[in-house]
Amino acid sequence: MGYEIKPCVHYLGVKIDNVNFARAQGIIDDTIKTGRRGYVCVTDVGNVIGASQNARLREAINSSLLSVADGMPLAWYGRMTGCSEMDRVSGMDLMAGLFAADNGYRHFLLGETEERINRVIEKARSITPTIKISGYSPPFKEFDRYDNMRMMEMLNRERPDIVWISFGGSKQEQWMHNNIGYLDRGIMVGVGAAFKWFVGDLVTPPRILQRMGLQWTFRIGQHLIQNPRKNLQFIVKTVLKRKLIFVCHFPAEVVKARRELGKEGKMNRQVS
User: Fold this and answer.
1) How far apart are CA 79 and CA 105, in angstroms?
2) Which of 5 and 174 is assigned the larger pLDDT?
3) What gap in Å lies between CA 199 and CA 212, rounded to an integer?
4) Where are the beta strands (DSSP E) in 116-213?
5) For a tag site, which of 53, 67, 68, 167 has the least CB within 10 Å?
6) CB-based contact 104:182 (threshold 8 Å)
7) For the packed helices 241-271 and 72-81, what is the interaxial angle rounded to 10 degrees?
8) CA 95, CA 165: separation in Å to the nearest integer?
9) Which residues, other chains included, contact 227 with Cβ-Cβ below 8 Å and sequence gap of 6+?
């Protein structure tokens, strides 16, 4: 079955695709089976607001094969604009789901520490004993030309179907955009802290908070408990500020997106 990418919506100029978990997985499957390449951005509210203020990050997300809504507020926004299939697709759920799918894909983990990569591999094999999976922990610094060349040579030698990238928000999106042209085949997926969630180094928020769009409050609590002095300033100046910007723009963005999708649908009907 072929999975067509349906019209996307934009929030402050940042793309969010009209997909749920099943459709996102189907598009990834189709891309791999047809020998194409692409990259997937797992986009949350913080990334949307960050990208609206950063042209390079915005270009990276908007040029992706898929930009999935990692968070219920973005899924609600999509549905209110007419994207009925849009649902929350977290990096952790996408990665864990494809690990468990037992579809014969070759997986490659890029990012994080070697110790954590080994733990992800061990857990993935406990779920799917036949899984083909390996990884590499790059240096913890700003990558130079040599670092990028080494990683791309490694990926093209290993020929993975899916590369799971954990460089952190904004860095991984721009890295995928800058380097996808050097990848021979396959899909890159930027999953942020998913390696940590997968092995239990971060506690997954209760499902009810996730469905209510309040998982970020749980994470704020974790950060404050771990290091209140270090994290309080970041939470106030970055996290809460971006949430406030998102909320303030929400009504106008819904109206704008509904108008744009309506025009697109009208044009499609005229063409047909």
Assistant:
1) 32
2) 174
3) 24
4) 132-136, 162-166, 186-190
5) 53
6) no
7) 30
8) 10
9) none
CA-to-CA dists, residue 254 to 149, 162, 268, angstroms: 42, 34, 21
Query: Cα–Cα distances in Å, from 68 out to 86, 157, 232?
Result: 9, 29, 28
Q: Where are the domains of the chain?
A: 9-204
Find the range with the poorest average confidence among 56-70, 75-89, 205-219.
205-219
Q: Which residues contact 71 (CB under 8 A, 6 or more apart)?
A: 44, 45, 88, 213, 215, 216
Give the residue among 107, 226, 113 at the shortest CA–CA distance from 167.
Answer: 113
Residues forming a β-bridge with 42: 68
> Tokens in use for 182?
């050097």
> Which fold, 9-204?
Rossmann fold (3.40.50)
Looking up tokens 């789901």 gives: 97
